[in-house]
Structure formats: C-alpha cells, structure tokens
Amino acid sequence: MSVRKTAVLALFATLSLAIFAVESAIPPLVPIPGIKLGLANIVTLILLRRFSVRDALLVLISRILLSAFLFGQALSLLYSLAGGLCSLCVMAAVMGLLQKKLLFLTGAMGGLTHNLGQLAVAFAVTRTGGVIAYLPFLVLSGILTGLFTGLCAAFAGKLLPPVPSDVS
Question: Residue 98: which pLDDT band, with cuts at 50, 70 and 90?
Fold first, then answer.
C-alpha cells in the first residue's frame, strides 16, 4: 500500500471516528437501548463504493478499536465488532449485486444486519431470550437509519473528487 493511500485511509478513519464521537454526544432519539443513527457508517459506504472491501475493513476496524479505547468499554467492543463486521459483509455483497448503485438499499441492509449482529452478541452474552423482544424495534430502526446513512453517503459521494489511480 502506498504512503498516499495509507494517508487517505487514515483520514477516512479519522473522519469516521469524529462522526462517531459527535453522535455519541447526542442524546438517544428513542428510549430503546442500542438504537442510534450510525452516522459513521456513511464513511464505510463511501469506502465500499470508491475503494475496496479490504480498505473499508481496515478503516472500520480502526474506528471500532479506537472508539472502544477512547469512549467505550470492553463489552461495547464486542457489540461494535459483531455489528460492524456483519454489516460490512452484507453491504459488500449487496454493493456487488447492485453494481455499486442504490446506496440507500445497501445502507438499509447494512443497518439491519448491524443490529442483528449486535442482538446475536447480546443473546450470547446474557443467555436471555428476553433480548429477542428488541428484534422488531431493531429491525425497523436498522432499516430506517440505514436508509438515511445510505442517502447521506450517496449525497456526500457526489461531492468528493475522483479517486486518483495511485490511491484506489
């Protein structure tokens, strides 16, 4: 990987972490634990569209590790990793199927699978079937917030300059 590409990906990781930090300071929109906009996912969507899955994974892992270290707890690392990796895998597959078009649908699928991954970890950690009661709320919120982040990523992607050949 070139120094220039490393610097560009580091900037995307920094942007993603900054967005996460700002969103963490916003009070919850609804009184249901685990529901938030997931605005840092905008960066992941942009990276999937303009770079590679590997590049998006590097930035995602960097953001998750740094955010857990700076703002979270050890348990939040598990939830973030599960949700982020599930989401990235599904978004990469959907992005391939849709030929990098319809970013809002990719975002919706990512938001949904992010919440499902976190719910799976919650079930594994607590060993309580009661966490499944959150499923309808997490499905709906994941799809809606994913649609929003997908639309934001599509809009932001139009404003970004083309990726130089030595960076992509």
Answer: very high
- Tell me if the pTM is above 0.70: yes
Q: Going by C-beta distance under 8 Å and a sequence separation of 6 or more, which residues neighbour residue 18?
A: none
Here the tokens at position 123 are 């079930």
Q: What crossing angle do the helices spanning 103-126 and 41-50 adopt, rounded to 10°?
A: 130
Q: Is 70 exposed, middle or buried (0-12, 13-18, 19+ CB in 10 A)?
A: exposed
Residue 55 contacts residue 16 (beta carbons within 8 Å): no
Integer Cα distance of 117 and 112 in angstroms: 9
Residues 6+ apart with CB under 8 A from 77: 64, 65, 68
- Is the per-residue pLDDT at 52 higher than 90? yes
